Amino acid sequence: MKKKDLTRRQFITTVSAGSVAAAVSGAIPAFGNITILNNNTGKLAILGGTPVAPEKLWPEWPYVDEKMVDAIVKTTRSRIWCRIQSSTGTVPTFEKEFANLMGSKLCVCTGSGTQALSTCVEALGIGPGDEVITSPYTDPGTISSIITSRVLPVMADIDPESYQIDPDDVERRITENTRAIMPVQMGGQSCNMERIMAIAKKHNLRVIEDAAQAHLAEYQGKKVGTIGDLGCFSFQASKTIACGEGGAVIGNDEELMDKCFTVQNHGTNRKGITERIGPKYRMNEFEASILLSQLQGVKERFAIRNRNAAWLTSRLKDFPGLVPQKLYEGTTSGSFYLYMMSYHKEHFENAPRSKFLKALEAEGISLSTYLPNGLHKEPWVDHILTSKVYQKMYSSARLKKYRDELNCPNCDKVCDEMAMIWASGPLIGTREDMDDVINAIMKVYDNRDKLNSI
Ligand SMILES: Cc1ncc(COP(=O)(O)O)c(C=O)c1O
């Protein structure tokens, strides 16, 4: 019987038996315990077969409902459009509600996640001559928030399985000028915050959590974003809580949070006195009205994403071809802004990732590669190393060492292997939607011997 004529159940049985022989022969064994969902074998759609999920409609994102539309209309009619017009407007109200939701004392909103991070760097008094250690596997906003203050962003490599900053490499890269660690909570999951906090304590460093992707995620009984000195979030359109562009800083230290307020308010404090350096990063009332009305139902959507993610992960258990993001002990939930996996081509007859993704897309399921390369490989590096300002503020020996040490091999590997779902919308789909994802992956796996020819 040809493989393409087999049902999924028959194929699993065949593979399981085959895996014994493969193991004996030293070849990579095939997996054998994916739960049977439906009959999805047959010709690949890219080769003319029937797609697993033709014209798939995912839940649309950003989330919109009538309450949000009404809220925008109400704000428009109120003529209160700027946060300083009212102490009870949508921005101050959202700040209170978001702080409550996150289990934090205080919140200061900004116009973006990048601005939130930048506010923290300024508020902590970190400036030219100083260094902040962060991850190269992140959005450019992370780096931007550091270089905007003319600070040196030192890249620590990541863990190849969790995609999170590697605490050992963080510690190796600390110098006498290091002032803070900016761990990126990649995918909306926690870094190894226990280690990061211990390193920060040992070396007397501040911790600014880049939790831009990690709304409501929990680690060791705390919400991600509340573990470091300050935590930053993004409400950019793709995020699990979104208003187009927006951001927030959360924290418990009142004095520090007051500084954050002053920084994002062009250096003017809550009493109206202009007292320090600060850009104007204020969130406007339209953004907060969308956010406020979107908070209703946010926990429910968060729970659905976590349930669906757990289902996907359980379906991929023991399948070596596509391995979900490793979570650190103590992780109880994630935002699932991204559902991240690594593609291991050795289990797909060495077919390049691009062919796997092409075949999968023809089945109706699109996965993304996320970043083409880590940010340590982008031209901003040359820009700062050749800029007069950086050459004035940092010795030539330091800048040379910086360039020489700009290698993050694990990050390079992750960029080559990543295959992920933009999950804010898709992961609030149904169980059947999740099954479609798995069925399409397994169908391509079943047909892996054809991948190199497409
Ligand atoms: C990890 C990370 N950091 C920072 C940012 C910047 O946030 P924003 O786009 O709101 O400026 C993002 C946004 O995608 C992000 O994912």
Q: Give the strand order of the largest sheet, numbering strands 1, 2, ... along the chain.
A: 1-9-8-5-4-2-3
The helix tally amounts to 17
Portion of residues in helices? 25-40%
Specify the structural class: alpha/beta
- Ligands, deduplicated: pyridoxal-5'-phosphate
Average pLDDT reading: 92
Low-confidence stretches: 1-39
Total E-strand runs: 13
Question: What's a concise summary of this model?
Answer:
The protein has 454 residues and is of the alpha/beta class. The chain is 40% helix and 12% strand.
What order do the helices and strands come in, and which of them pair?
Blueprint: H1 8-25, H2 66-78, H3 90-102, E1 106-110, H4 113-123, E2 131-134, H5 140-147, E3 152-155, H6 167-172, E4 178-182, H7 193-203, E5 206-210, E6 218-219, E7 222-223, E8 230-234, E9 247-251, H8 254-264, H9 285-294, H10 298-316, E10 322-324, E11 331-333, E12 338-343, H11 353-362, H12 380-385, H13 388-393, H14 396-404, H15 409-417, E13 418-422, H16 431-446, H17 448-451
Parallel strand pairs: 2-3, 2-4, 4-5, 5-8
Antiparallel strand pairs: 1-9, 6-7, 6-11, 8-9, 10-12, 12-13
Helix pairs in contact: 2-9, 3-9, 4-5, 4-8, 10-16
The structure holds pyridoxal-5'-phosphate.
Structure in words:
The chain is α/β, with parallel strands linked by helices. Helix content is about 40%, strand content about 10%. The protein contains 17 helices and 13 strands. The strands form three sheets. The protein has a seven-stranded mixed sheet, with helices on both faces. It is globular and about 70 Å long.
